[in-house]
Amino acid sequence: MPQSTVWSIHPSLARKSLLNDYSLEIPVSKVSSFHPPPEIFVKGSEVYLPHLSQKDTAGLKDACKKIVALGYQPVPHVGARHFADEAQLREHLTAARDGGARRLLVIAGDRDDSQGPYIDAMSVLSHAMVSDLGFAHVSVSGHPEGHSRINGDQLLDALEDKLEMLAVRGIQASITTQFGFDAATYVRWINMLRERDIDTPINIGVAGVTSIPSLIKYAALCGVGPSLSALRKRSGAMVGLLKGYEPTELVNELSQTLTLNDKAPVKLHFFPFGGARKTFDWITARSGTPK
């Protein structure tokens, strides 16, 4: 694959781009109260729906319908290890399809053991069911900080295998990362992908506005390692704990160091642990858009 042309842009333009075109995720159980402001979360943007258990499958169809009715694109998570058998996988994918979803995020899942035959994302991606049910775009996970049980080369090889599988099936692909707090780690990882001629669009995980204790709890659960240590150092003072976390510093650093191009866009993907409203208010303040 020929290497794409990449150019730097002025930091102010990068900030504007990063906050004008982004995605976020909310629990299936919170969709009924989800009312995003269209002036800062443009119609057609992606809303990811986590899959933590089969309870999320039960409400998935209605959640997707609500997202579609609001003018956005639902992107249900598909956690491979949560499915006990093929019937459960089909139930989940059918609920997503019937709710209007045409995009998925396929991941291994947040459990160490598998409830059934699907042990990783590849075991779902290799199933014809994904394309047979009409899903045209699939995002796969990226690990800028590495993985506790898989070395870096194996991670990259696995990522390339997943992207190749999607290409063979004629499905568009993107990469969505876990959230983190260290811009330099993200940039090094993105550059490493581009050096391997991986020009797939990337959604960079960013934690939204929330309390520091909550953020540290989620980071520990999600295996966010090196940058969690950096966050703990920055938030050690009591004033930091009282003020809470905002992603201002991270977004500023990303804006100043990222290079963007049309062929392989890099966007933000927000994890609004403190609630979507707080993160939308932060974006409003940053963009200068009236509430």
UniProtKB/TrEMBL annotation:
Gene3D superfamilies cross-referenced by the UniProt entry: 3.20.20.220
Known catalytic reactions: (6S)-5-methyl-5,6,7,8-tetrahydrofolate + NAD(+) = (6R)-5,10-methylene-5,6,7,8-tetrahydrofolate + NADH + H(+)
Domain of life the protein comes from: Bacteria
Entries under InterPro entries matching the protein: FAD-linked_oxidoreductase-like, Mehydrof_redctse-like
BP GO terms, sorted: methionine biosynthetic process; tetrahydrofolate interconversion
GO molecular function: FAD binding; methylenetetrahydrofolate reductase (NADH) activity
Cofactors named for this entry: FAD
Pathway the protein contributes to: Amino-acid biosynthesis; L-methionine biosynthesis via de novo pathway; One-carbon metabolism; tetrahydrofolate interconversion
Any single GO CC term annotated in Swiss-Prot or TrEMBL for this entry: cytosol
Protein family: Belongs to the methylenetetrahydrofolate reductase family.
Alphabetized PANTHER family for the sequence: METHYLENETETRAHYDROFOLATE REDUCTASE, METHYLENETETRAHYDROFOLATE REDUCTASE (NADPH)
Protein's name according to its UniProt entry: Methylenetetrahydrofolate reductase
Organism ancestry: Bacteria, Pseudomonadati, Pseudomonadota, Alphaproteobacteria, Rhodobacterales
